[in-house]
Design brief:
The complex is a heterodimer of chains A (291) and B (325). Chain A is mainly α. Chain A has eleven helices and two strands. Chain B is globular. Classes of the chains: A mainly alpha (291), B mainly alpha (325).
Chain lengths: 291, 325
């Protein structure tokens, strides 16, 4: 393995971990409501931009980060309450437009609250690169990978071991049956937006020190997160993580070895290629249509 | 005779023709004509897109890609290579139709969100190619386009364009109305309610979906070509994801499965940004809020919701009369 390959792999894993977090957000909301939340990318933006603001106001990271995550989660809950909940029963296209409208609204709001400039965020623990097998990795990348791993473990514990998590999982399998056994599916839907928003915010905070952040970072990160979720198969947690990592690595490799001009197009080329052969993604449910 | 006039095919078409003929009375200056032309061009795209979304029930989040390919195809052939604009437009349209056919075949097997993703991806790839291949397209700066001309006659000025676009819009609506009244149209509605069900009664769902996908791409491409010649300039913004979304929003706002709804939606959402400029910095916020609000409160779109209201009123008043008699 050449040092160059190793370098691309490490960078790809870092980016992929971020895509995975965004994709998990898509999957959680999709499972609870069968809604694709196109405003998912804006939570990423809110997490990053709010952290910039809170740290600029003099708050230490230990306070600024939880506050930024809470801010995004509140926006997520509000989105569910005031935009998705009132439109229950609307068609898929209508719901897609509502969430896209929400994302445009939030981006416009961010432009008014903050500005159009790029904002840097200080790395959590220094910026001295660490050498690994001939390649280097930023301490911040280690944070990205470590926190993502921790979140994935925490989520699998949450969905497998806690009552609320099991209730959410049950709702995703069969909404009506879940309701029959006494699960408050509306509350599940409400909470899933909060949880997804928090995950998106974490992604935005983790990546901000590496790429800087601005009012419109959510657009591409959101679309790529959606691509990752679709690649893995909508609604599959494992799929979201695998999809994210695969996209991240493939993107960095092709940018490095093929063409950096088309870096952002790679994710979509891959997704089209995969969908041509596997119409439900890598880990998606393959079920027939009932007439 | 009267019942024929009340049918959307003749009555609605006549109404639209009257609106197009009388609208210039209300258009005070060039600026209003300009907006009317933009409305007409968007309406042509939406009428095609509505066939796909409203009637066949297939979503596309990438139609700005076809619009952009039409615009750039015409721009490059006519301006860079000096082709006659009409030949450039026809060649581009054929190429876009061929591309839609090739891409549509595998893509339209997908359903729901997977189809949304695939069309979105297709649109973004077109956008990236256009912004990156700047030798042909001028990259992010865009490209200047020669005016449209046939023989020695040069099409210039908002007023002439208004009539050209008006007639083309009527033609597009007429084509769409005929299509949905044909066996193909009935097949599309059947597969919208249930694809499996439609196949069981002998409808080739894949062929029909592909046909309507190609038609909608052709409408978008022609409108794109015309828009390029009309404004004399194309930028990648016309190909961007957001433009695809605007097109879908026009269709849903006006009303899915309503040809005239598509026209109303195009008119409303093309004029809205012009009105919103008074909000300056808040323009984007207000646009997003309007998008959310209308979809939450009028999920069926303006025209079907109004039609429904009208229907219930009429039923109620006829009930009253029945009661008093």
């Amino acid at each position: 393995m050449s040092a160059q390959f190793m370098q691309y792999l490490l960078t790809g894993l870092t980016v992929g971990a971020i895509y995975a977090l965004v994709a998990l957000g898509f999957s959680i909301i999709f499972n609870a409501s069968h809604v694709i939340n196109f405003a998912q990318g804006e939570f990423v933006m809110i997490g990053g931009m709010a952290s910039v603001s809170f740290t600029a106001a003099g708050l230490p990271y230990l306070l600024a980060i939880p506050l930024a995550i809470a801010a995004a989660a509140l926006v997520g809950l509000a989105l569910e309450k005031f935009a998705v909940e009132p439109a229950r029963g609307a068609s898929v296209v209508t719901l897609i437009i509502i969430t896209i409208g929400a994302s445009i609204f939030l981006r416009g709001l961010a432009m008014v609250i903050w500005d159009k400039r790029l904002h840097p965020l200080k790395p959590f623990t220094g910026d001295t690169p660490i050498a690994i097998a001939g390649a280097t990795i930023l301490p911040q990348s280690l944070w990205v990978l470590g926190v993502t791993l921790a979140i994935v473990l925490a989520l699998s514990w949450f969905f497998g071991r806690t009552l609320l998590g099991k209730a959410m999982l049950a709702t995703s399998h069969n909404r009506l049956a879940a309701q029959l056994v006494g699960i408050n599916v509306r509350r599940v839907l409400f909470l899933s937006f909060g949880l997804s928003a928090a995950l998106g915010a974490v992604a935005g905070i983790l990546i901000a020190p590496i790429t800087t952040t601005s009012y419109d970072v959510g657009v591409m990160l959101g679309l790529k997160g959606f691509a990752a979720a679709i690649l893995g198969g909508l609604g599959s947690g494992v799929g979201a993580v695998v999809g994210g990592l695969v996209l991240g690595i493939a993107e960095t490799m092709s940018a490095g070895y093929l063409s950096s001009a088309y870096k952002d197009a790679i994710a979509f080329v891959i997704i089209l290629a995969v969908l041509f052969f596997m119409p439900s993604g890598l880990f998606g449910k393959r079920d027939g249509e009932r007439v | 005779m009267l019942s024929r006039l009340a049918s959307p095919r003749t009555g609605g078409l006549l109404a639209l023709a009257i609106v197009i003929a009388l609208l210039p009375l209300a258009l005070a200056n060039k600026y209003f004509y300009d907006i009317a032309v933009l409305v007409g061009l968007n309406a042509i795209v939406c009428v095609g897109l509505n066939l796909l979304i409203g009637y066949a029930g297939q979503i596309s989040l990438g139609h700005a890609g076809f619009f952009g390919l039409g615009a750039y195809g015409s721009a490059i052939l006519a301006s860079r290579y000096g082709w006659p604009p009409l030949a450039a437009m026809l060649t581009t349209t054929l190429a876009v139709a061929a591309l839609a056919y090739l891409v549509g075949r595998p893509i339209l097997r997908l359903k729901g969100h997977y189809l949304a993703m695939a069309t979105l991806g297709m649109g973004i790839i077109v956008y990236m190619v256009i912004t990156t291949e700047d030798r042909f397209t001028g990259g992010p700066d865009g490209i200047a386009v020669v005016p449209f001309s046939i023989g020695g006659f040069v099409l210039q000025g908002e007023r002439i364009w208004y009539w050209v676009v008006g007639v083309l819009l009527l033609a597009a609506v007429w084509l769409a109305l005929n299509l949905i009244e044909s066996p193909t149209g009935r097949a599309l509605r059947a597969l919208h309610s249930s694809e499996v069900g439609a196949e069981v009664v002998g409808i080739n769902a894949a062929e029909h979906k592909l046909l309507v996908f190609v038609i909608s791409a052709v409408f978008a491409s022609v409108a794109g070509s015309l828009a390029a010649h009309y404004s004399g300039f194309v930028t990648p913004g016309k190909v961007a994801f957001l433009h695809s979304i605007e097109l879908v929003t026009m269709v849903v706002f006006g009303g899915m499965a309503s040809i005239f709804g598509a026209v109303v939606g195009a008119a409303a959402l093309t004029t809205l940004p012009q009105l919103l400029t008074v909000f300056e910095d808040y323009e984007m916020m207000v646009f997003g809020a309007v998008m959310m609000g209308t979809m939450i409160f009028l999920p069926r779109g303006v025209v079907p919701s109004m039609a429904r209201l009208f229907q219930t009123r009429r039923n109620a008043s006829s009930d009253d009369r029945a009661g008093s008699a």
